[in-house]
Design goal:
By secondary structure, the protein is an alpha+beta fold. The chain is built from 13 helices and 10 strands. The strands form 2 sheets. A 7-stranded antiparallel beta sheet has the order 1-8-9-10-6-7-2.
């Protein structure tokens, strides 16, 4: 066979090798693109689970403390699958009930602007696929909320909107600014976007000092007031803190999500015999405390999560029943145990017994 004949014979084989090699290269590139999708297109808040809740106290002993721990800075402001539904409620509240949920005293403007600055910086850093800065002319610097489609001007005068309101429309945390007033040496609530309160209105409490804000809490003045005021004075920029608390909430037929989350007045006492397990929610608050360096104020945030009693896992039911059983009489009365306690304890006992029987029969 001549040299030319050999070359002609090998050409199809060479072409096949080249084609197969090209397929492997393209396939590898395609796999890499699929393995690392464009998060700016793929981001969906519904995919995010809630921040892990602090466990209930299972010791059976009640201690009146703040229960402080160092803030998990990586999860200061959180996005989860409730974001869109909760933001819809917040938007409606700000449109229809703004004085009851948003108040800023004269002189708090710089602190409110600082709140917006740090909130925007945090969100655009942690969630760049959801919050994007768009630079315009000298008067316009916008933040785009990809999930809601809202756009807010970040430059003064903020298109006439209070900067604290803009921050409250970006996150689901309630935002409170407390400032130490030299005249009395106490921290006062000087600005607040509290859209999900429990039994109070910011319209009524704006300007109050810490002791007034917690005046109805049993044993507050005797056991916690001095230490809490000292804590607020000692919060540093470098060491923010957090704590958790919870309430048991009884829902009523016909209530909307807005009615459940925004309770401007204390809920009336339902007849205990009429309450069913399906009517009960466990309402948890994750509270954080940060010192704002420019204004030297304290930013106090509250993230509210509600979970139906019937959806709690076995471990949580055990902890819940032990903790509410440990409350002294005055705390139990303040938290409403006389209304919902028998229903909750009965449900916990029945559910745990049922699961124990199921496990023994396996």
């Amino acid at each position: 066979m001549s040299y030319v004949e050999v070359v002609i014979t090998l050409i199809p084989l060479l072409l096949l090798v080249v084609f197969k090699g090209w397929q492997r290269i393209v396939g590898r590139q395609t796999t890499q693109r699929n393995a690392f999708p464009d998060k700016r297109r793929e981001f969906k808040s519904q995919k995010f689970e809630s921040y892990p809740q602090q466990p209930f106290n299972q010791s059976g002993r009640y201690h009146m403390t703040m229960g402080l721990r160092k803030l998990d800075l990586g999860c200061w402001l959180t996005i989860d699958k409730t974001y869109l539904t909760h933001q819809k409620v917040r938007t409606d509240l700000l449109a229809n009930m703004k004085p009851q949920v948003l108040q800023c005293l004269p002189g708090s403007e710089d602190a409110c602007t600082e709140v917006l600055d740090i909130v925007v910086d945090y969100l655009t850093t942690k969630y760049p696929a959801m919050y994007r800065i768009v630079e315009g002319n000298k008067m316009t610097r916008n933040i785009n909320n990809i999930e809601t489609g809202e756009v807010f001007n970040l430059n003064h005068p903020f298109d006439g909107m209070n900067p604290l309101e803009i921050a409250a429309r970006l996150v689901c945390e309630d935002l409170n600014v407390l400032k130490k007033i030299q005249e009395d040496g106490n921290h006062h609530l000087v600005a607040s976007a509290t859209l999900f309160p429990v039994g109070w209105s910011v319209e009524d409490r704006i300007g109050w000092r810490l002791s007034q804000l917690h005046g109805t809490v049993p044993s507050w003045q005797a056991k916690l007031e001095p230490s809490v005021e000292r804590f607020f004075s000692r919060i540093t920029v470098q060491q923010p803190m957090e704590r958790s608390t919870f309430f048991v909430q009884v829902t009523h037929q016909g209530q909307t999500l807005s009615d459940i989350l925004c309770q401007l007045e204390a809920s009336g006492n339902a007849e205990p015999s009429t309450i069913k397990a399906n009517d009960i929610l466990v309402r948890r608050e994750r509270q954080t405390f940060k010192r704002l360096p420019r204004s030297d104020t304290v930013l106090f945030t509250v993230k509210t999560t509600v979970t139906p009693l019937v959806d709690l896992a076995k471990k949580e039911l055990i902890g819940l029943s032990k903790e509410i059983a440990s409350w002294p009489a005055d705390v139990a009365m303040y938290k409403g145990r006389h209304v919902w306690g028998s229903c909750v304890m009965r449900f916990c006992g029945d559910r745990l017994a049922s699961e124990a029987d199921g496990e023994s029969n396996m």
